[in-house]
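Researcher: Structure prediction, please.
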Amino acid sequence: MNLTELGYVAGWRLVRALPRPVVAAAFRAGADRAHRAGGGGTARLRANLRRVVGPELPEAELDALVKRGLRSYARYWMEAFRLPALSREQILAGFRLDPAGVDRLAADVASGRGAVVALPHAGNWDAAGAWVAATGWPITTVAERLKPEAVYERFLAFRQSLGMEIVPTHGGERPAFDVLVDRLRAGAVVPLLADRDLSARGIEVDFFGGRTRMPAGPALLAIRTGAPLYVTSMWYEPDAACASLEGPLPLPDPDGAPLDDRVRMVTQRIADGLAAGIARHPEDWHMLQRMWRDQPVTTPATGTA
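Model: Predicted structure follows.
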C-alpha cells in the first residue's frame, strides 16, 4: 500500500469515526488554508469562476466566491468519505431532487426506457448516485481508471457499496458504451459527468463564451437508445445536497443530419444547460482543472490575504 492509498484509507476511516461537526470544522479550516496559500488548484478555480461571473465582478467579490468554492469542494470530500457509514434513511434525507425531476425519473425507470443524466462537477454527485440507489432505482455509471490501481479499486468498492454499478472507462470486459446501452434498455438511470472531457476526443462547444471540449457519451447514448436525456443543476443548501433536472432535451430528427452533427448539436444543448445551472450556483462548481482552450496550460498561483 503506497502513501496515496494510505491517505485515502485514513481519510475514509477517520472522517467516518469522528462526529460530523468536528470533521466539518477541520475540512472548512483546510479549505481556508488552501485559499490563503493560493496554490495551482485555487488559481485554476479562480480563473474558471472569473469566466463564469464575467469581468465586471470586483476582485474582492471574486476572492470571496473562490473561498466559498473551496469550502464547498471540501464539503464534497467530507460528505463523500462519510457516505458509506450512513443509513438508507440518512442518504435519502441528505439529498433533494426537485419533485418534477423525481416524477420524471420514476416514470422513466417504470417504463423500462431508463434515463441519461448529464451532471456537472458540482454539489455532491456521489450523494446523488447513492440517493438514486437508495430510492430503489437501478443505476450504472462510469469511472476513470485512477493511478495507482489500488486507489481506483478502493473508489470502485466505495461506489459499489452505495448501490451503484460502476463500469471502467477502459480495460473492462466489454466496452463501457455497450454496457451503458444495455443498462438503459433495461430501464436504468445512467448519470454521467459531462462538463469536462478527459479523452481528448470530445466535442467542441461554446461554454461561458469560450471554447472547450465535453464528452460525446451522453448525447450519443440518448441518440442511440432513444432514452430521455436530462441536464442536472447541482448545489448545496445548509442541510442537504440538492439538484434539479432540465429536460428531457429535444433530440434532432435522425433523418435530418449525419450522426456527428446530431451529437454536436445535442452536446451543445447539454453545455448550455450545464452553464445555466453553474451560473446560478457558481460557488458549488468544483472545477479546479483547466477548462477552456484559450487558458494557459499552467495557471500562475495567486496568493490571497
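Model: Confidence is low (pLDDT under 50) at residues 299-305.
Researcher: Thanks, that helps.
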